[in-house]
Structure formats: structure tokens, C-alpha cells
């Protein structure tokens, strides 16, 4: 461990650096845990947003009873085969329910 304080990354704003420089060791450890959790959350949100970019078909008028009305019909390709899935959000989670294979010509 060095006797001099670490240099902040250039990507951090000066205001942020000044804010955390005056924190105690305990506060800095709490900031570290929060920053790590926030980074994981943001990465997950990015992945979910990318998943939402999958090919989404026009929504049929009839939905199964256990699928909410806000669900959309999504096409996924798995091992060279295409399948329909109902997808919707439940809080932070994206839920999927298998509908069936995509028929040739669809």
C-alpha cells in the first residue's frame, strides 16, 4: 500500500472526486458497495434493453389467460430454429412464456 493517496480516474468529474475525498474509510466502503451494486444494475438494464431489441412481431388479439395484456410476441432463434415467446416485464424482471414454433413462411 502506498503512503500517498491514490490518483482519481480521469473519467470522474471533479465534483464527484471532491465529494468522496472528504469521506471516512467507512463511508468510502459504503460508496464502493453502492457503486458496485449500481454498476451491476445498470449493466443488467442494458442487457434487458438489448433483449427487448429482439425481433418483436405484431401482437395478436388473443392472449392466453396467464399472459398479461401488456405482453408482446417475440421471435427467438435457438439452434437454427425460430420460436414465438410472449414477453412482459414484472418489475425489473422480463418474463417469457413459450408460445410455439414459427411456421415456415411466417
Verbal overview:
With 106 residues, the protein is an alpha+beta fold. The protein has two domains: 14-49, no CATH class; 55-101, no CATH class. The protein has helices at 14-21, 25-52, and strands spanning 56-57, 72-78, 81-90, 93-101. Strands 1-2-3-4 form a four-stranded antiparallel β-sheet, with no helix packed on it. A hairpin with a 2-residue loop joins strand 3 and strand 4 (93-101). The longest helix has 28 residues, at 25-52. The chain is elongated. The model has no long low-confidence stretch (mean pLDDT 83).
Which short descriptors sum up this protein?
106 residues, alpha+beta, elongated
Number of domains: 2
Mean pLDDT: 83
List SSEs in N-to-C order: HHEEEE
Shape: elongated
**How would you sum up the major sheet?**
4 strands, antiparallel
Q: Structural class of the secondary structure composition?
A: alpha+beta
Oligomer: single chain
Radius of gyration: 23 Å
Give the N-terminus to C-terminus distance in angstroms: 63 Å
Number of strands: 4
User: Strand order within the widest sheet?
Assistant: 1-2-3-4
Helix content: 25-40%
Strand content: 25-35%
**Which residue ranges are poorly predicted, with pLDDT under 50 across at least 5 consecutive positions?**
none
Amino acid at each position: 500500500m502506498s503512503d500517498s493517496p491514490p490518483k482519481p480516474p480521469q473519467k470522474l468529474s471533479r465534483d464527484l472526486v471532491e465529494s468522496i475525498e472528504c469521506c471516512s474509510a467507512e463511508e468510502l466502503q459504503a460508496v464502493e458497495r453502492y457503486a458496485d451494486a449500481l454498476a451491476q444494475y445498470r449493466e443488467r438494464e442494458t442487457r434487458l434493453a438489448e433483449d427487448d431489441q429482439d425481433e418483436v412481431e405484431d401482437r395478436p388479439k388473443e392472449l392466453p389467460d396467464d399472459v398479461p395484456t401488456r405482453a408482446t410476441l417475440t421471435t427467438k432463434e435457438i439452434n437454427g430454429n425460430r420460436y414465438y415467446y410472449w414477453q412482459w416485464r414484472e418489475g425489473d424482471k422480463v418474463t417469457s412464456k413459450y408460445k410455439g414454433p414459427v411456421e415456415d413462411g411466417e
